């Protein structure tokens, strides 16, 4: 029977099928961080259980780490406690641990791919919803809750009903200034934040085939924001070139065997999806969000829609606009910005900093904006330095911080103050996501750069 | 972590007819710093419940003494966003054993089932009926019968069936969790693991 890419990977990981119940699903790689793992370790110990395959679990500290002075002790005692717990638990159970300051440290979804933990055809979970990022390599990757983290520790399995299958195709050529982030935000704006709930998405078509691995990660990362369990893209030459030779990818004869398998990982011609969407690349312009969920996005040159024009109730819509301090029909261009955040597992990779630098080069940071530039990992940080991007940033009046999740979820000190506006390259504009009362406008690194030099929402195409 | 068995629940309910309630609202990230599962109920809907100075926001439903009970009735797409199980813990810890909505986000729903909160998905029309009944009379009780998979508005007698897969239902009825099941098939899992190429 013909199968989709998703079927092939899913079906090969089912240990047992339970009648009128979930599949017992085997997990190849388990990523953990300091926030969603400690309670799972407590549970594991309370049951007197061990980690079954510690070599399949990888720990990194990222969610509440400071992004300056990482060599000093962490000041917030609660954060310090979680970081210590991660280190201690990893040691106790024999799990590899990349703590603060380790050369491989960084955001869990950035360091996985960088080190070859992420492989085509693998199943990858983490107690973080943006685990969907790893789908860019043709892996099935999704976020889990802490109870499931405990299950994976104890048994390397979780219990999941197989999601339905959706394919999203975007064909054609992207316009100037339109990045993978815009493609993602555009799709979410079309499907809404619940449009893919219950589905696992495969992205296909010219746009994704032509996209870099970094770009594919950005798109797959955002899958969760339309409710999908995850998103994936069939592996191809770009994928194999990217992973070949990384620290943890198979080597020698193992590589050859793996390649043979990986080449079969694509959707068969006549395989069926439960739902399909087709979009035209030409319809997408640089995007920005104006509301309090990632589905509330529009092309940057457009006006904020009226309540009638969007799905959902008026009360919810009004509440959202009033939180943002915006009104229906206003243009987004020209709106005042107080903060700019470039980073996160959505846009904290080297390509994102290249994009940012391409616009700010030779200009000066606006004095009215506070800008946080946070690389996704030390590897990204090193590349920024090697490629001369750091000099460009510094000359334009910007400083580079140290890796971590930072203002993406504002668990550390990088909080946007109440009422202030931030253009952010991260993935969530929920109320208070970037600090209590903070107002977030999601956009690409290009849009972030244009705002960083002008202090207002600006069309990046003006600078290209 | 073990939780109490769920069979039938009869209780008044708290209405929260807002759509797309995300888990950052249910429990803001800054309260995720615990290393133990304790006290999350205190911070459920923290920023909707309290002003920055710690005083109560009078107009938020959890601060309205008229409404109480073990059932939370939410708007469409309840629990979207982050995978934090802390959101489900907060709901449980606060004292809710059941969340009713016309549509749930996936991971939140799954997390609820894993921690002993029953997510009951009803039709949008039935959700409207529930809100209307509660707003009409805050002492209206809902009855959730897990065995029969039925939800009833006791004041009007209106009923609807809801879905839950047989396995999860068995777990909830017995207070079991998935690890209890997985532990018993460990040798099968080990055999499977030995066949994985990486
Ligand atoms: S950067 Fe943001 S979304 Fe990504 S792992 Fe960190 S907190 Fe989660």
Characterization of this structure:
The complex is a heterodimer of chains A (464) and B (198). Helices cover 31% and strands 16% of the residues of chain A. Chain A is α/β, with parallel strands linked by helices and 464 residues long. Chain A folds into 3 domains: 5-160, Aconitase, domain 3 (2-Layer Sandwich), CATH 3.30.499; 164-231 and 261-283, Aconitase, Domain 2, CATH 3.40.1060.10; 289-459, Aconitase, domain 3. Chain A has a 5-stranded parallel β-sheet, sandwiched between helices. In chain A, helix 2 (38-46) crosses helix 5 (146-155). Chain A starts with a helix and ends in a 10-residue tail after the last helix. Chain B has 198 residues and is of the alpha/beta class. Chain B has helices at residues 23-26, 46-49, 86-94, 106-115, 124-136, 166-174, 178-184, 186-193, and strands at residues 8-16, 71-74, 98-101, 118-121, 141-145, 150-153, 159-161. In chain B, helix 3 (86-94) crosses helix 4. The relative contact order of chain B is 0.18. The model of chain B has no long low-confidence stretch (mean pLDDT 94). At the A-B interface, helix 2, helix 3, helix 5, strand 8 and helix 10 of A face helix 4, helix 6, helix 7 and helix 8 of B. The complex binds iron/sulfur cluster.
The number of E-state strands of chain A comes to 18
| Form type of chain B | globular
Number of domains of chain A: 3
- The CATH homologous superfamily of the largest domain in chain A corresponds to Aconitase, domain 3
**Strand arrangement across the biggest beta sheet of chain B:** 4-3-2-1-5-6-7
Radius of gyration of chain A: 21 Å
Tell me the number of structural domains of chain B.
1
Q: If you consult CATH, what is the topology of the largest domain in chain A?
A: Aconitase, domain 3
CATH fold descriptor of chain B? Aconitase, domain 4
């Amino acid at each position: 029977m013909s199968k989709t890419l998703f079927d092939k990977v899913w079906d090969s990981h089912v240990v047992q099928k339970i009648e009128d119940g979930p599949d017992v699903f085997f997990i190849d790689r388990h990523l953990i961080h300091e926030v969603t793992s400690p309670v799972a370790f407590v549970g594991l110990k309370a049951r007197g259980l061990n980690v079954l395959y510690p070599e399949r679990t990888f720990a990194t500290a990222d969610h509440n780490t400071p992004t300056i002075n990482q060599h000093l002790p962490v000041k917030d005692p609660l954060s310090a406690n979680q970081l210590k717990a991660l280190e201690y638990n990893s040691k106790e159970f024999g799990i590899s641990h990349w703590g603060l300051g380790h050369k491989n440290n960084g955001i869990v979804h950035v360091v996985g791919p960088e080190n070859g933990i992420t492989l085509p055809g693998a199943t990858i979970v983490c107690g973080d919803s943006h685990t969907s990022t790893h789908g860019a390599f043709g892996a099935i990757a999704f976020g889990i809750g802490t109870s499931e983290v405990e299950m994976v520790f104890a048994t390397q399995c979780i219990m999941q009903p197989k999601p339905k299958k959706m394919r999203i195709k975007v064909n054609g050529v992207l316009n100037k200034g339109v990045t993978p982030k815009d493609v993602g935000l555009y799709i979410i704006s079309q499907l809404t934040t619940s449009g893919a709930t219950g589905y696992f998405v495969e992205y296909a078509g010219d746009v994704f085939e032509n996209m870099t691995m970094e770009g594919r990660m950005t798109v797959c990362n955002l899958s969760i924001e339309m409710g999908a369990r995850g998103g994936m893209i069939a592996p191809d030459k770009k994928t194999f070139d990217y992973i070949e030779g990384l620290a943890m990818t198979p080597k020698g004869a193992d590589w050859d065997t793996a390649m043979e398998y990986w080449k079969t990982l694509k959707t068969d011609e006549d395989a069926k999806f439960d739902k399909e969407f087709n979009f035209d690349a030409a319809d997408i312009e640089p995007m920005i969000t104006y509301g309090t969920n990632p589905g509330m996005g529009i092309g940057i040159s457009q006006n904020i829609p009226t309540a009638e024009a969007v799905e959902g109730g008026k009360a919810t819509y009004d509440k959202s606009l009033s939180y943002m301090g915006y009104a229906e029909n206003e243009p987004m261009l020209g709106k005042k910005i107080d903060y700019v955040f470039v980073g996160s597992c959505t846009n904290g990779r080297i390509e994102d900093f290249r994009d940012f630098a391409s616009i700010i080069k030779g200009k000066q940071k606006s004095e009215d904006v506070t800008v946080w530039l946070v690389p996704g990992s030390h590897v990204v940080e090193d590349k920024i330095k090697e490629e001369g991007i750091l000099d460009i940033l510094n000359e334009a009046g910007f400083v580079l911080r140290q890796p971590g999740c930072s203002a993406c979820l504002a668990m550390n000190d990088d909080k946007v103050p109440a009422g202030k506006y931030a253009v952010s390259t991260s993935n969530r504009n929920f109320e208070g996501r970037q600090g209590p009362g903070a107002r977030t406008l999601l956009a690409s690194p290009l849009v972030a750069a244009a705002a960083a030099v002008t202090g207002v929402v600006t069309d990046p195409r003006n600078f290209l | 972590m073990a939780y109490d068995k769920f069979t039938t629940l009869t209780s008044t309910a708290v209405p929260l007819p807002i759509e797309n309630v995300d888990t950052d609202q249910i429990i803001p990230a800054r309260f995720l710093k615990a290393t133990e599962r304790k006290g999350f109920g205190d911070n459920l809907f923290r920023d909707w419940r309290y002003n920055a100075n710690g005083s109560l926001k009078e107009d938020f439903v959890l601060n309205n003494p008229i409404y109480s009970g073990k059932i939370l009735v939410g708007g469409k797409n309840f629990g979207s966003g982050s995978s934090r199980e802390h959101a489900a813990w907060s709901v449980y810890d606060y004292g809710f054993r059941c969340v009713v909505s016309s549509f749930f986000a996936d991971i939140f729903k799954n997390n609820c089932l894993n921690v002993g909160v029953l997510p009951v998905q009803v039709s949008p029309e039935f959700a409207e009926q529930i809100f209307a009944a509660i707003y009409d009379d805050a002492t209206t009780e809902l009855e959730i019968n897990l065995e029969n998979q039925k939800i009833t508005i006791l004041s009007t007698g209106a009923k609807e069936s809801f879905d839950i897969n047989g396995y999860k239902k068995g777990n909830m009825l017995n207070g079991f969790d998935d690890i209890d099941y997985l532990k018993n098939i460990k040798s099968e899992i080990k055999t499977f693991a030995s066949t994985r190429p990486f």
